[in-house]
């Protein structure tokens, strides 16, 4: 049983959170929603910091709460790593001692991750002698993540770990989080209300609204579903996980393959075999009923219209299928009418801009 199961109800005087979720036992699952949606409360329920009614909290083979069986394991006995928005390091201990502090309660017999591995994964080897108040916000947070990881937890719970950092620090930490996901098989529950972070990191997305789970599924699919609000954000985007299969040194151009075909992307830094997550904004995708010729746009994909919905005044959001990968295109209502767009219609998607998520 290599999965996560969370069920229960948390009631406050003016608020109720209900959840019933079955999730895979690896990868990053984002708990996403507006302020007050219940993301932190759900994370706290998993940690045992609040006790949900009619609760079942199961993490892989371990049952941490089962009300019918009168099981409730207190937080300190749950094998979890909790990372908060602020790093919460002990200010009187240097980085090495901060890291060791978390490890004291760990039984050495079942260690899968060594302290050295945690230090290496978060790239903090050069910081071990430093005191916390000499570290940048991003460095502190990397230490705090390494400290949680070094306890060799069954699950990592992260509550807006990047929210206190500016964009630059955020983008410094994202690759480390991606690395954790690539190299370890520890499931990560990641609370965020920042769509850019979630689309960069998450394999799965759980959308919460006013104490309820509205929908959950693969991030790429959730971002493009027209029955959910995510596809109507100003920055509405699709994501593509592409694999670098060829380089053209003459034009410094890479070819990436994905389920829907190929994407061409300029840049020196890509290596053959590398998987790259790309973000394609709905605004950067235009549509044509015939394959455009003599155009400067390199990426033209054969797609099918899955769904259409009115967006803002005079605009339409179109959900497209590129052989299993979803894309969005935001066009004017007039263009949608001229192109006679209907569900199931084959259409060429011209991708004008692609951002690499790094
Ligand atoms: N201890 C508490 N007592 C009473 N109400 C609470 C308590 N903790 C949380 N709440 C309420 O529960 C609701 C959900 O809070 P929660 O912190 O889970 O939301 P969130 O989605 O994480 O929001 P944010 O993004 O702002 O952190 C809020 O309306 C909050 O006021």
UniProtKB/TrEMBL annotation:
<dbReference type="Pfam" id="PF03459">
    <property type="entry name" value="TOBE"/>
</dbReference>
<keyword id="KW-0997">Cell inner membrane</keyword>
<dbReference type="Pfam" id="PF00005">
    <property type="entry name" value="ABC_tran"/>
</dbReference>
<keyword id="KW-0547">Nucleotide-binding</keyword>
<dbReference type="InterPro" id="IPR004606">
    <property type="entry name" value="Mop_domain"/>
</dbReference>
<dbReference type="InterPro" id="IPR017871">
    <property type="entry name" value="ABC_transporter-like_CS"/>
</dbReference>
<dbReference type="InterPro" id="IPR003439">
    <property type="entry name" value="ABC_transporter-like_ATP-bd"/>
</dbReference>
<feature type="domain" description="Mop">
    <location>
        <begin position="294"/>
        <end position="358"/>
    </location>
</feature>
<dbReference type="InterPro" id="IPR011868">
    <property type="entry name" value="ModC_ABC_ATP-bd"/>
</dbReference>
<dbReference type="InterPro" id="IPR027417">
    <property type="entry name" value="P-loop_NTPase"/>
</dbReference>
<dbReference type="InterPro" id="IPR050334">
    <property type="entry name" value="Molybdenum_import_ModC"/>
</dbReference>
<protein>
    <submittedName>
        <fullName>Molybdenum ABC transporter ATP-binding protein</fullName>
    </submittedName>
</protein>
<keyword id="KW-0472">Membrane</keyword>
<feature type="domain" description="ABC transporter">
    <location>
        <begin position="1"/>
        <end position="235"/>
    </location>
</feature>
<dbReference type="InterPro" id="IPR005116">
    <property type="entry name" value="Transp-assoc_OB_typ1"/>
</dbReference>
<keyword id="KW-1278">Translocase</keyword>
<keyword id="KW-0500">Molybdenum</keyword>
<dbReference type="GO" id="GO:0005524">
    <property type="term" value="F:ATP binding"/>
</dbReference>
<keyword id="KW-0067">ATP-binding</keyword>
<keyword id="KW-0813">Transport</keyword>
<dbReference type="InterPro" id="IPR003593">
    <property type="entry name" value="AAA+_ATPase"/>
</dbReference>
<dbReference type="InterPro" id="IPR008995">
    <property type="entry name" value="Mo/tungstate-bd_C_term_dom"/>
</dbReference>
<keyword id="KW-1003">Cell membrane</keyword>
């Amino acid at each position: 049983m290599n999965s996560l199961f969370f069920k229960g109800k948390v009631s406050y005087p003016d608020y109720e959170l209900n959840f019933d979720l079955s999730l895979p036992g690896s990868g990053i699952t984002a708990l996403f929603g507006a302020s007050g949606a219940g993301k932190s409360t759900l994370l706290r329920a998993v940690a045992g910091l609040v006790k949900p009614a009619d609760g079942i909290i199961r993490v892989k083979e371990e049952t941490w709460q089962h009300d019918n069986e009168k099981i409730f394991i207190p937080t300190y006995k749950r094998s979890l790593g909790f990372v908060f928005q602020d790093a919460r390091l002990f200010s009187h201990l240097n980085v090495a001692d901060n890291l060791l502090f978390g490890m004291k309660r760990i039984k050495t017999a079942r260690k899968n991750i060594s302290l050295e591995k945690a230090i290496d994964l978060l790239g903090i080897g050069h910081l071990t002698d430093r005191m916390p108040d000499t570290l940048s916000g991003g460095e502190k947070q990397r230490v705090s993540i390494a400290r949680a990881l070094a306890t060799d937890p069954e699950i990592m719970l992260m509550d807006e770990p990047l929210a206190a950092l500016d964009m630059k620090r955020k983008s410094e930490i994202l690759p480390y989080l991606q690395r954790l996901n690539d190299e370890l098989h520890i499931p990560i529950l990641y609370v965020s209300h920042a769509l850019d972070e979630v689309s960069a990191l998450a394999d799965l997305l759980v959308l919460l609204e006013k104490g309820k789970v509205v929908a959950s599924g693969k991030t790429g699919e959730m971002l493009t579903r027209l029955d959910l609000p995510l596809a109507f954000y100003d920055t509405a985007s699709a994501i593509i996980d592409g694999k670098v299969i060829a380089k053209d040194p003459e034009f410094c151009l890479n070819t990436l393959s994905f389920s829907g075909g190929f994407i061409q992307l300029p840049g020196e830094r890509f290596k053959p075999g590398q998987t790259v997550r790309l973000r394609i904004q709905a605004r950067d995708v235009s549509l044509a009923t015939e394959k455009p010729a003599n155009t400067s746009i390199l990426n033209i994909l054969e797609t099918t219209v899955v769904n259409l919905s009115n967006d803002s005044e005079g605009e339409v959001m179109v959900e497209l299928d590129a052989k299993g990968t979803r894309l969005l295109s935001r066009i004017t209502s007039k263009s949608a009418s001229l192109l006679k767009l209907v569900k199931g219609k084959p259409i060429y998607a011209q991708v004008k801009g692609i951002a690499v998520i790094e």
